[in-house]
Task: structure prediction
Amino acid sequence: MSQNPNLFLSVGKQIKDEYGRIIGKVASFALTPSGKFDAVFIEHGDGKFLKRSMEHLKFDGANVILISKIKSQTSGFCDQIPLLWRKNQALKELSEKKKISPELYEELHSSFDGALTQLKNEAQTLVDEIDKEIARHANEIKELHYALVNLEIEHEIGKIDDQSYEAAFAIIQENLKRTNMEKSDMELTKNKLTNILLGDTPKTAEQEKNETKEEIPTEETSTSDAPELPEPPVVVYVKEIGKAGI
Result:
């Protein structure tokens, strides 16, 4: 693959995460002998360098966004686990149709099963890691709320002037917004990965077609099973009696 000169325009540019936090700057790229971009070298604010795979990066012109490692790994598991599951199912069907020998079936089935088990174990480890991240974000949100309350108290008793208060308030609110977004993102990522581990694999076209047929009611069932309409309400008009008529 030939080099893409547009990526080199990102060298020296700021790199941010998905939530707008500045991570550092793009220092350089690592390329394979064939010219394929393999990784990026990032200079962090503290001067340290980090090498990240290109699959964790998103390029939008000269803008570079660092995708969460957890989300990148989750995406990989959500692609690989259902694919292996479908391959195993296809292998089973071929065996039932006598299109492959029992010996070959057992060998391939064992291979697919082993790979699937390994992927599921790795995915479960990632779920545990996501749980820790969710807990960390929840604690950070709690601390930010404490910071906000303390800021309000000090401002209320006059120890912090209005200008400093407004600047600090904006900083805390922005961090609350980002942390809440990240926590929600991690929760959605966990649900996605958990569904895959529980076997919530994509349905085949044939399965969806059959389910659609079952859901369409016939004319006979739709009329016989229709609920009876309720009796119309009885309205009673009461004449108001004045004091004189009591």
